[in-house]
């Protein structure tokens, strides 16, 4: 899947964000609006975030309304995106599995593409830290991420 040059982009659109966070109790199994990618871009209300690593394999997100950030977990990465400037004000935590873990994973007979750290969990832990967990090349690992001015993995 992760072919070279393949760039996963994803869109954040103000209205969609409101739908997520607005606490609507209406039937949510069907989207209230249907728009194509092109239509969305033409509204000029769309910010596109391109992961500099290309393929993101997004699996988990966490909205931090208080700090106005969106945390995004992908393959070997966690991003902290600024809701004000999705494409600019982001921070990135590179969190790959170690070479040893990858080797062990491949020796267990897993496909090489699965032998990476796919970040699956992002939770608020306390006022200063998020808890995040990844598949760790079939050896799950968790870490605290200190949020605030200096974002770092502990
Ligand atoms: C979006 O921006 C383009 C280019 O600036 C402009 O031609 C278009 O009319 C704008 N669309 C809307 C819905 O404002
Ligand atoms: C939050 O949890 C982390 C990890 O256990 C800890 O280091 C930090 O001091 C805690 N922060 C607060 C405000 O309790």
UniProtKB/TrEMBL annotation:
Domain Sema, residue spans: 32-154
PROSITE patterns referenced in this protein's UniProt entry, alphabetically: SEMA (PS51004)
Keywords: Glycoprotein, Signal
GO MF entries: chemorepellent activity; semaphorin receptor binding
One annotated Gene Ontology cellular component of this protein: extracellular space
The keyword rRNA processing appears for this protein: no
Taxonomic superkingdom: Eukaryota
Stretch forming the signal peptide: 1-25
GO BP, sorted A to Z: axon guidance; neural crest cell migration; positive regulation of cell migration; semaphorin-plexin signaling pathway
Protein's recorded name: Semaphorin 3E
Source organism (scientific name): Rousettus aegyptiacus (Egyptian fruit bat)
